Amino acid sequence: MGIDELDKPMGVWCNHFKAGQGCTVYGFHPQSCRTFKCMWLISPTMPEQIRPDRCKVVLTIDQGGARIVAATDPGDPGAWRREPIHGQLKRWAADKNRTLWAMVDRHAWLILPDRDIDVGETDENAFMTYDQAPDGTITVVIGDREPIVSRRP
Ligand code: SF4
């Protein structure tokens, strides 16, 4: 994830992270690091297999619960497609009030109950939305890019 205070873009390791040690400035780390809580931390009912260091996916919820992002370890880019994560994402996607995205670095997929749509490179802060026509055709809008159209599989 991007961290404004550190000028750290998404998909890039933090300079303060050290393998085997963690945060080398812990206690002095930025406010956004202090307040950030992934879904595994805030939801006591999450199964142990969804712990980020085990499944390689960090789940975040924002926009008042309207958006869930599965930020996936680029070292294991297929992790969001594995169970139990993928099934859980699909179940959440059934809620029409929520939009589900998987991200690997800057690459994004819109997750829907019946398909996952590859929408290509984007930015975690880009405006991302979609619309579903009665025939099941999905139109995805990412920022000011040309819309992406996906027919029902
Ligand atoms: S908690 Fe520490 S290592 Fe992690 S992003 Fe923040 S400053 Fe970097």
Describe what this molecule looks like in 3D.
This protein is of the alpha+beta class and 153 residues long. The protein folds into two domains: 36 residues, no CATH class; 84 residues, no CATH class. The strands form three sheets. It has a five-stranded mixed sheet with strand order 3-4-5-6-7. The protein has a three-stranded antiparallel sheet with strand order 8-9-10, with no helix packed on it. The chain has a two-stranded antiparallel ribbon with strand order 1-2. A hairpin with a 4-residue loop joins strand 3 and strand 4. The mean pLDDT is 91. The two termini are 32 Å apart. The chain is 14% helix and 31% strand. The chain is built from four helices and ten strands. Iron/sulfur cluster (SF4) binds next to loops.
What structural class do you assign from the helix and strand content? Answer: alpha+beta
Query: What is the distance, rounded to the nearest whole angstrom, between the alpha carbons of the first and last residues?
Result: 32 Å
**Mean residue pLDDT:** 91
State Rg: 16 Å
| Fraction of helical residues | 10-25%
Strand content: 25-35%
Anisotropy-based shape: globular
Q: What small-molecule ligands were found?
A: iron/sulfur cluster
How many domains? The number is: 2
Instruction: List segments where confidence is low: pLDDT < 50 over at least 5 consecutive residues.
Output: none
| Quantity of strands, as a count | 10
Strand line-up of the largest beta sheet = 3-4-5-6-7
Largest sheet: 5 strands, mixed
Number of helices in the DSSP assignment: 4
Order of helices and strands: EEHHHEEHEEEEEE
